[in-house]
Amino acid sequence: METSHTKSLIGRKLYIPQMSYEGARCMAAAFQSIGVDAQPSPAGDAQTYELARKYLSGDECLPQVITLGNFLKVTQEPDYDPAKTAFMMPTSNGPCRFGHYLPLIRKIFAQRGEDEVLLLSPSSSNAYEDISESAASLVRTGWRAVVAADILRKMLLKTRPYEREPGTTDRVFAEALDRVCAAIATPNISHRQRLKKIIQALIQSRDAFRNIPLDTSKKKLLIGVVGEIFCRLNDFSNDHLIRLIEQKGGEVWMSDVAEWVWYTHDEERMQLIRQGQRFSLRMLGCKLRYAVMRADEHKLTAPFEQDFAGYEEPHHITQILELSRPYLPREGAHGEMVISVGKAIWYYKKGAAGVIDISPFSCMNGIVCEAIYPTISSDLGGFPMRVFYFDGIQANLESDLEIFMELADNYHRCRKHHPPKNRQLLIDGLNKNQQQTPKLSFSRQRKSRSPV
C-alpha cells in the first residue's frame, strides 16, 4: 500500500473544494503559479448527496456531505485515475466536526480501493513535502488569492441588486474572475511582479463593475450575513439564499474569508502569550507574517477605497472580538460563534437593517449563536437577527425570508426614532478596542456607511 509520504503532486490533477466558486478558482490559480495542475472540484447538485450518502451515517454536517460528494463526482469522470488525482482537504484541531473530514475521506477512498489518491492537507506534517521549494511562495500567493476573491465577491454583492439589466453583473464578475486568476497563475515571476499583475487585473475589474448601468433610485435593505464559513459561501449548500434575499429587496454584505484567516492568526498570537513566549522568535515570526499579510491586503484593497466607502471591514480582528465580548468572550468560546456575534453587531453599527446567520443543521456554532441573538436583538431595540439552518433537504425558504425582510424593513424605518437602549455599550466597546489595536496594522476602515 502506498503511504501518503510516498505520494507526489507531480503528474496529478489537484481539485480544490468549492467553499465558494471564486475562492476555489483563485486558490487553484495560486497552485498553478508553481506548476501544479489545479482546478475547482465539481459544483454541487443532486448527485452530490446521492454519491456521498452511500458512505455516511447521517450524523455528518452538511459541508462534509457536499465536499465528499463533489470529490466523488471526479471518480465518475471517464479519465479518472487515482494515481493521477489529488484533493486538497484542509483540517484543524478542536471540537468542530471539520477536523474529522480528512480522516473520514481518506478512509472512504481506501474502502473504494483507491488509496493511491493524494489528500493534500495544509496543516498536516507532510502537506508541502512534494513542493517544498515552492511552499513559501504558494502560501503568500494563496493569501493574495483569498483577498482577491473576497474583493470580487464584495463588488458582486454590492452591485448586483441595483443592475438595470439582469445578468450583467454576473457576466462582469465571471470576466473579472478570469482576469484575476490569470494574473495569480502567472508562473516564474517575483512576488512583486505578481502583486502588480493582480492589482492591474483588479483595477480593470473594478472599472468594469463601475460601468454597469445601475438603478440606485431606491436603496435596498442592507442585510449582514454571518455564520458557518462553508455554508454561507457555498450557494448550493444554502439553497441560493443570497439571491433570494436580493429578490426580496435586500443587498447582502457577507463576512469574508480573510476575516477567518485574521482570527486564526490572532489566536496564534494569544496562544504564544499564554505559553510565555511574548518575546520569542516564534512571536517575531508571527508579527513579521502579520506585517507582510497586512501590507499585501492593503495594496490589493487600496484601489477600492471609493467603492467600499460605507462597507469598511474592521481594521483589526480584535474589534470584532471586543464587540462580541459582552455576550460571548473569546476566552471562553472559540471559532465562528465569536466572530459571528461580533460581526453581527458590526453590521448593525454600519447601518444594516438585519442580520442572517447561515449554518448547517446541528452546527454547534449556529446553536450557540441562536441562543445569544435574542439578547443582542433586545439590546439593539429589536434588531432583526435570524439563523437559517440547512441540511441538504430542499425547503421553501420564501415565507420565512419574507417575514424576516418585513421585520428588517420596519426596523430600518423606525431606527432613527427609537434608538436602542444599550447602544452606548456597543460604541464604548468599539472605541475601547480601537485604542488597543496594534499600531502595526494598516487601516481597513475609513468612514461609516450610516453613523449611529
What does this structure look like?
- There is one protein chain.
- With 452 residues, this protein is an alpha/beta fold.
- It is built from 16 helices and eight strands.
- The chain has helices at 21-32, 46-52, 62-74, 101-111, 135-159, 168-184, 191-210, 229-233, 241-247, 257-274, 281-301, 317-324, 336-349, 364-379, 398-414, 423-436, and strands at 13-16, 37-40, 85-88, 118-120, 221-227, 250-254, 354-360, 385-390.
- Helix 14 links the parallel strand 7 and strand 8 (385-390).
- The longest helix has 25 residues, at 135-159.
- The protein starts with 12 loop residues before the first strand and ends in a 16-residue tail after the last helix.
